[in-house]
Amino acid sequence: MVYKYEILTQLNKHKGKDKNRLHMPGHKNSGDFKSHFPVAPIDFTELDFTDDLSCPSGAIKKAQEDIAAILGAERAFITTDGSSSGVMAMLFVAAAYGNKIIVPRNSHKSVFNACRLLNLEPVIVQGAEVDGVLMPPSAELIETLIVNDVNIAGMLITSPDYYGNIAPLDSYAEVMGKYERLLFVDGAHGTHLALEENRAGHASLYADMWVDGAHKTMPTLTQGAVICVKNSKLVARAEEAVAIFRTTSPSFPIMASVEYGIKYFINNPKHLIKAKNAVAEFKAGLEGITLYPSQDWAKLAVDFKPLGISPYLAQEVFQKKGIYPELNDGRYILFYLSPSVEPYHIAEFKNTLLWICTLKKLQNTYKDVPSIPSADRTYSFLYAYRQKSEWVPLKQAVGKMCADNAGITPPCIPVVIAGEIISEQAVQTLLKAKQTFGIVDGKIKAVKK
């Protein structure tokens, strides 16, 4: 089946007909703006012909119905506010079923922001650390937590994560079903998995509700995502949620690109096959180079520890060659691919990687990075936010209670979470990070004694 690009077709149909734009947006599709931003001619507001995301009845309605069918959802809601708005929506739904939610420690900061906003206590769990990366927690641990607390609405899990680990969603779903709880999935990194045979690895197989970050792995403009509901009893609450957390002025180009991105590889499967073949070819002939054992073909993380090479120095060389990775965690450099990747880009990347490994000036430059901290929790997450706080220099913060999450970006995951006691390990990790959140002028927010 070939899908029509409903929203884009509708926008293009009227492009150029509105010669006198006496409505938003303010650029008016004129002057220098039009020459600098080629998308201007289809950057409309809600008009008679565009349909309205908040109450769709035309092209947007049909697009969302198609997207739901492709992604395996009962309902699908386009959002132009990124996956974070989807996380907010999911936890708004969860809050109707309990005042606690199970949250793995390596969740995106938007999960914790939503818990704070919605007065949900995150029950924070931590899986085992394997090769420097946190694994998803075991289903047995999750069941133990749920059995002992009737206030837990369910669980929100990231799957796949940045490194391509796919959580045991089948086991989680079995536990949630057994105790009548809900499974929510932050699938921001996994929209492309919906293209796999039988959607293998995709959140739609087991989640009650999930978010697909289309812009991360599909040909979609940044901030384009989809909030999906499979459990029909959650639809009404989800509609409330999207009305609250989505903007009232959605970008029509982003909206059109979400639909385009979801449908493109269904309409053009040869490009997906070409990209996956290129990645398979890349992995062949990498003697002496270790890749993180990702379960997701679109995540290539090169382990520089066995090479004895500083990933920071290696990244500088990559970027001088015009190759820009997604993130560098001090051990792995992650190269974030998608079905849109061109084989010649993968070949160029491989050649550069092999060349970097031969550079004598990079040999024996690797330094170990701290393990992922696991902190003591004295009081709850929400308790910490209710206390008076002060900004404390990082080096003087050890032993104090954290008053606001602080971590590294990307991947926007907390190193220390509100309510935890700040450890020396957490301080060292934050001091060595190049980009952080929750740190201002070398200071962290701590509960005031």
Topology overview:
Layout: H1 6-14, H2 31-36, H3 59-71, E1 75-79, H4 82-94, E2 100-104, H5 109-118, E3 121-125, E4 129-130, E5 133-134, H6 139-147, E6 152-158, H7 169-178, E7 182-187, E8 209-212, H8 214-217, E9 225-229, H9 235-245, H10 252-267, H11 269-283, E10 290-291, E11 299-303, H12 311-320, E12 327-328, E13 332-336, H13 343-356, H14 381-386, E14 389-393, E15 406-408, E16 413-416, H15 424-432, E17 436-437, E18 439-440, E19 443-447
Parallel strand pairs: 2-3, 2-6, 6-7, 7-8
Antiparallel strand pairs: 1-9, 4-5, 8-9, 10-11, 11-13, 12-13, 14-19, 15-16, 15-17, 18-19
Distance between the termini: 64 Å
What helical percentage do the residues reach? 25-40%
Amount of beta strand: 15-25%
- Mean of pLDDT: 95
> Helix tally?
15
Largest sheet: spatial strand order? 1-9-8-7-6-2-3
Task: Describe the largest sheet.
Answer: 7 strands, mixed
Give an overview of the whole structure.
There is one protein chain. This protein starts with 5 loop residues before the first helix and ends with a strand. The protein has 15 helices and 19 strands. It has 449 residues and is α+β, with helices and mostly antiparallel strands. The model has no long low-confidence stretch (mean pLDDT 95). A seven-stranded mixed sheet has the order 1-9-8-7-6-2-3, sandwiched between helices. It is 35% helix and 17% strand.
